[in-house]
């Protein structure tokens, strides 16, 4: 990724995208596995390895240029979604539900493998796919709206739980308040995060691309690829939630420190 992509930066995205000459150190493309008594859940599905082996993965010359400027991916065969699940003792068929934080390519890459599962995304995020020229916003219908997928496009309902304020609305994935989906807008208009509450252990907040670095979230500094005004509002909400849930572990999808924090919380 570009340093300006991670942030903070004052440069508008088109400027840094086409002028930056630097890359960060490698950063992860994370997919998380959640065990629930009602089934195995994925939070995001990673980047499709085909995107680095097939030059036609992105449909046009401009799309290919833009994506080559945004990030450079290295996805060896042992780093695919299937391989990662096997290392953890699962098969693809074990996955009952996949929750998608947002519809960018590095979060939907495993969709072709998940026709057997329920795929959850926010209605607002899906609406971005329906608007004109979704590719300009990094949404590629041919990799998202695949035949046979079972989409569950969710809205949010009142949570009525003071400890979760300022998140007044969310989606209770299993009806038992253990896994809640929260609207965390900013990186995209329909981005969501997942709050996982575990008896006797620290709660986990999987925030997708709200930030690329937990420290930048804590200081309220947006990345270089977001609606900055909306992201600052959402960061304030998340930081208030962190203050209310003092053991909360925050796990951004591309944060190099996320795996260590998750391991420490287990």
Account of the 3D structure:
With about 270 residues, the chain is an alpha/beta fold. It has a single domain, classed as Ribonuclease Z/Hydroxyacylglutathione hydrolase-like (Metallo-beta-lactamase, Chain A, 4-Layer Sandwich). The protein is built from 11 helices and 11 strands. It has a 6-stranded mixed beta sheet with strand order 6-7-8-9-10-11. A 5-stranded mixed beta sheet has the order 1-2-3-4-5. The longest helix has 17 residues. The two termini are about 30 Å apart.
Annotation keywords:
single chain, 266 residues, alpha/beta, Metallo-beta-lactamase, Chain A, 5-stranded mixed sheet, 11 helices, 11 strands, globular, RibonucZ/Hydroxyglut_hydro, hydrolase activity, metal-binding, zinc, Metallo-B-lactamas
How is this structure best summarized?
By secondary structure, the protein is of the alpha/beta class. It has eleven helices and eleven strands. It is 29% helix and 19% strand.
Question: Topology, please?
Answer:
Blueprint: H1 3-6, H2 13-19, E1 32-36, E2 39-43, H3 50-53, H4 61-70, H5 81-87, E3 95-99, H6 105-108, E4 118-122, H7 123-130, H8 141-144, E5 150-154, E6 157-158, E7 169-172, E8 179-183, E9 192-196, E10 204-208, H9 214-218, H10 228-244, E11 249-252, H11 258-265
């Amino acid at each position: 990724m570009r340093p300006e992509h991670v942030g903070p930066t004052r440069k508008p995205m088109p400027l840094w995208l086409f002028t930056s000459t630097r890359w960060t150190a490698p950063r992860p493309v994370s997919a998380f596995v959640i065990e629930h008594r009602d089934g195995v859940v994925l939070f995001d599905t990673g980047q499709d390895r085909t995107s680095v082996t097939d030059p036609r993965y992105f449909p046009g010359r401009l799309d290919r240029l833009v994506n080559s400027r945004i990030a450079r991916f290295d996805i060896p065969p042992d780093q695919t979604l299937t391989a990662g699940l096997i290392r953890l003792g699962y098969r693809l068929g074990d996955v009952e539900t996949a929750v998608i934080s947002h519809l960018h390519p590095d979060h939907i890459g495993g969709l072709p493998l998940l026709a057997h599962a329920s795929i959850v995304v926010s209605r607002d995020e899906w609406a971005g796919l329906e608007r004109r020229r979704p590719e300009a916003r990094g949404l590629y219908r041919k990799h998202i709206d695949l035949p046979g997928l079972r989409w569950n496009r969710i809205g949010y309902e009142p949570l009525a739980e003071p400890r979760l304020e300022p998140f007044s609305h969310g989606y209770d994935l299993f009806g038992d308040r253990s896994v809640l989906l929260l609207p965390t807008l900013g990186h995209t208009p329909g981005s969501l995060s997942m709050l996982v509450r575990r008896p006797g252990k620290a709660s986990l907040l999987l925030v997708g691309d709200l930030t690329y670095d937990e420290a930048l979230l804590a200081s309220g500094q947006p990345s270089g690829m977001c609606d900055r005004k909306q992201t600052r509002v959402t960061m304030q909400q998340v930081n208030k939630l962190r203050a209310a849930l003092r053991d909360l572990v925050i796990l951004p999808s591309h944060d190099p420190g996320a795996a260590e924090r998750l391991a420490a919380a287990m």
